[in-house]
Design brief:
433 residues; alpha+beta; OB fold (Dihydrolipoamide Acetyltransferase, E2P); Dihydrolipoamide Transferase; Chloramphenicol Acetyltransferase; 3 domains; seven-stranded mixed β-sheet; four-stranded antiparallel β-sheet; flat
Length: 433
């Protein structure tokens, strides 16, 4: 028998650590070569780890939600016979691939340690003989509760209903009767039955939910957001969409999203500051020519943002196919790592739950995010071709945009949305090259 320590490999994303999302094996279980035994999450995707050997698991690196550094022990496996040389060599390379701490991190750690030591020395110098710590004062005994006066029948009924008799107001003589219990039930529920209280629940924030929390916190902490909302009349756009769907044949059904993305891509060349990424550490803004459109998708694991690469080069039907494919991959957890990164601008939509207006959070390091809201029908004044103003029922949709104020000025954001609005309200222009 031999013990083989499998180190967390470098999975090629330049990360220093990964999170344990789900163990498929526990200590004492056997594992086969190439069998997946744990899912590890990086900043971008969940990566299953496969065992390089057959054996029995003796030790694991931690619980779900714990972080494991690249090159450190992930699992210890008991192996019959010798471990193949190529496996040992690969594992050695994984251990050697552990990234060294950055110079500034080392300096900061030294500075903190030095500061702590200096503070301790100062404290000792100021007070070489610290006073003895006083004995803790015992906590006071809780005051005894007043005895509840009630007949055995009332007590039994209250117990069956889950009612604490100490909460029931007694009669003037201090005794609780059935009538007092009825009054309590009627006041607290209105239906003659005690309201049930949902049990508290603690749930550890791990995996995708923790990544979302960290990314959103970093975005709001580092980016000075501002939002702008404009109303668009999409009546003619919806007519065009219905006409295209009626003659689509075997093509996918169009939602409004492919039309919106096409309109955005046609508008962006005049507003390059919107389709950009900001490296705030380097102080560099990159204005991208191609549009790699992030598409926020709700999944059981939380919000994920797969990326439609080169959206500007795709027609409506190609966009519809990509939207459907990437949304399904995100929901099922089969999206590839490269499909989850590299976005230059994001669109986020809650569909029919879109509300009147939203103030979406920017997907850092992008500098803008666009949110179409719910389409509603409402009467509005419309001027006909005869110049006569009349009231018509129109389909209206608000467009929200949030921008990084360090990079995008309010005037530019408003001008971009107004140009986008023109395309959406004159949808024939969307299809013109």
């Amino acid at each position: 028998m031999a013990k083989f320590t499998f180190n967390m490999p470098d999975i090629g994303e330049g990360i220093a650590e990964a999170e344990i999302v789900q163990w498929h094996k526990k200590v004492g279980d056997t594992v086969r070569e190439d069998e997946e035994f744990v899912d590890m999450m990086t900043d971008k995707a969940t990566v299953p780890m496969e065992s390089p050997v057959d054996g029995k698991i003796l030790e694991i690196a931690g619980a779900e939600g714990d972080m494991v550094s690249i090159g450190s022990m992930l699992v210890v496996i008991e192996v019959e016979g010798e471990v193949p040389d190529e496996v040992v060599e690969e594992n050695k390379e994984a251990a050697e691939a552990a990234p060294a701490p950055k110079a500034e991190e080392v300096e900061e750690r030294i500075e903190v340690e030095t500061s702590d030591a200096s503070d301790a020395d100062d404290a000792l110098a100021a007070d070489p003989e610290p006073e003895p710590i006083p004995e803790p004062t015992p906590a006071p005994e809780p005051a005894p509760q007043a005895k509840v006066l009630a007949t055995p029948a009332v007590r039994k009924r209250a117990k069956e209903l889950g009612v604490d008799l100490a909460q029931v107001k007694p009669a003037e003589d201090g005794r609780i009767r059935h009538g007092d219990l009825d009054q309590f039930l009627s006041y607290n529920s209105g239906y003659g039955a005690a309201a049930k209280t949902r049990e508290d629940e603690e749930k550890k924030v791990i995996g995708m939910r923790r990544r979302i929390a960290e990314n959103m916190a970093a975005s709001k902490r580092n980016i000075p957001h501002f939002s702008y909302v404009e109303e668009c009349d999409v009546t003619d756009l919806e007519v065009l969409r219905a006409q295209l769907n009626a003659s689509r044949g075997d093509k996918p059904k169009l939602t409004i999203l492919p039309l919106l993305i096409t309109a955005i891509c046609k508008t962006l060349p005049d507003f390059p500051m919107i389709n950009a990424r900001y490296d705030d550490e380097a102080g560099v803004v990159t204005r991208h020519g191609a549009v790699h459109m992030g598409m926020a998708a709700q999944t059981d694991a939380g919000l994920m943002v797969p990326v439609i690469k080169n959206a500007q080069a795709k027609n409506l039907w190609q966009l519809a196919n990509e939207i459907s494919r990437l949304a399904e991959a995100a929901r099922t957890g089969t999206a590839k790592s490269e499909e989850m990164q590299g976005g230059t601008l994001t669109v986020t939509s809650l569909g029919p739950l879109g509300g009147v207006a939203t103030t979406p959070v920017i997907n850092r390091p992008e500098v803008a995010i666009i949110g179409p809201n719910r389409i509603i029908e409402r009467p509005m004044y419309v001027t006909g071709t005869d110049g006569v103003e009349r009231i018509e029922k129109r389909k209206l949709m608000n467009i929200s945009i949030s921008c990084d104020h360090r990079v995008v000025d309010g005037w530019d954001a408003a001008s971009f949305v107004q140009a986008l609005r023109k395309l959406l309200e004159t949808p024939a222009l969307i299809l013109v090259d």
